Amino acid sequence: MGIAMIGTGYVGLVSAACFAEFGIDVVAVDKDQKKIEGLWDGKIPIYEPGLDDLVSRNVASGRLTFTTDLASAVADVDAVFIAVGTPSRRGDGHADLTFLFAAAEEIAKGLKKETVVVTKSTVPVGTGAKLKALFAQARPDLKIHVASNPEFLREGSAIEDFMRPDRVVVGVESEHARQVMEKIYRPLNLLKTPILVTEIETAELIKYATNSFLATKITFINEMADLCEKVGADVQTVARGLGLDGRIGPKFLHPGPGYGGSCFPKDTAALLRIAEEANVSMRIVESVVSVNDGRKRNMVRKITQACGGSVRGQTIGILGVAFKPNTDDVRDSPALVIVPALQAEGATVKIYDPEGMDMAKPDLPGVEWCNDAYEAIDGADAMVVLTEWNVFRGIDMDRAKSLLRRPLVIDLRNVYDTQDMANAGFRYISIGRNEVDGSMSNRDKDQAA
Ligand code: UGA
Hints:
Blueprint: E1 2-6, H1 10-21, E2 25-29, H2 33-40, H3 51-60, E3 64-67, H4 70-75, E4 79-82, H5 98-110, E5 115-119, H6 127-138, E6 144-148, H7 158-163, E7 168-172, H8 175-184, E8 195-198, H9 200-231, H10 235-243, H11 264-277, H12 283-306, E9 315-319, H13 335-344, E10 348-352, H14 357-360, E11 368-369, H15 373-377, E12 382-385, H16 390-393, H17 397-403, E13 408-411, H18 418-423, E14 427-429, E15 436-437, H19 442-448
Parallel strand pairs: 1-2, 1-4, 2-3, 4-5, 5-6, 7-8, 9-10, 9-12, 10-11, 12-13, 13-14
Antiparallel strand pairs: 6-7, 14-15
Helix pairs in contact: 1-3, 5-6, 9-11, 9-12, 11-12, 12-13
């Protein structure tokens, strides 16, 4: 069994390495000569735990190779996976399929035998049918089967998600394609992973439905958190109470500053465009998108209010710029909305993130980038947690208090225990939980009363 993977971005590189780990011969293709040379040298262009080992192990075994020569890579394989980017088109939210169709044209030219061409990139419903038409026109001499195999891996735990998925979704239109896809995923039979074989359109929609539903779940708990703050309830416990209901489940009920990343914002927007074109109103997803956009801005207000109504002239020490931990990805990260807004209101912003700073620098001018969390809060008027990296959980709070100009922590990821923070002498503001203030001495408290 041999496959070609077109695109060595996040999904392409992880999938290529994982398929090679399954024992399949994989050739990964990218136009970027430097990237391909780097991959041969073991240089992984993204930060993803475990990926460097997985790639080097499979390169060493000879199962994983890299090339810029698409035509020769696809000539003699059983399946070609397309994993090129499908970013949001500027202005209208449609998925931009320029790279996908360009790759398909090149694949059509290079194929030499009956092959299954599989989309792994997230593509609008109907793309499989368009590819089928493209191949029929470009190569009437050859049997080219189109299939859809959406990817559900999360950044930061991509390898585990690929190797132990909840399910694999495969959209096919022929028995041959079904057989090839089932053979590729055969190693997952050992784990009894359900393989859902569907029509192509259904597989394409399952991807958007999944991401939009997860975005809805997060947005629901975020709104619930706002209510908790007003009525004195604790959102963490509300989430636990909700999640223990087997019909709801505990995952993706963690409140925060709004979802970001390269997938949920893009895929919810694309689903709305797909629905619009099909003349179907999707008011729930529409609300999710607008509530989530508004939430990032509301977080600015939350920080400003905690700082006494204005941050002018104040220094804010921010921990985390990546859209989530264990990644260097900052695409649509809440930080990209919150930081410029704080700067516009007159604050000086210092930031530390274990992996995301290089990616964030071009988007966030004027920030003071720091070497660790303590440097970021040194002399700051407030410490603000934007990403829940594990290293932030273990911060020495006595040291933090001595570095901060006043003991104020605004935690938009609920990383710390409220009582611990009060005991440590902080005024601590988190999401959907009561504010605590351990910063006042007993005498101050008496006076305040
Ligand atoms: C998401 C999906 O989880 C994957 O299944 C999917 O394959 C991927 O998109 C994709 O389409 O490629 P990812 O964007 O890597 O994966 O990250 P998530 O862990 O889903 O987090 C997305 C955002 O939601 C982050 O900003 C995160 O902080 C936020 N989030 C997540 C919450 O605020 N609360 C939660 O409970 C979970």
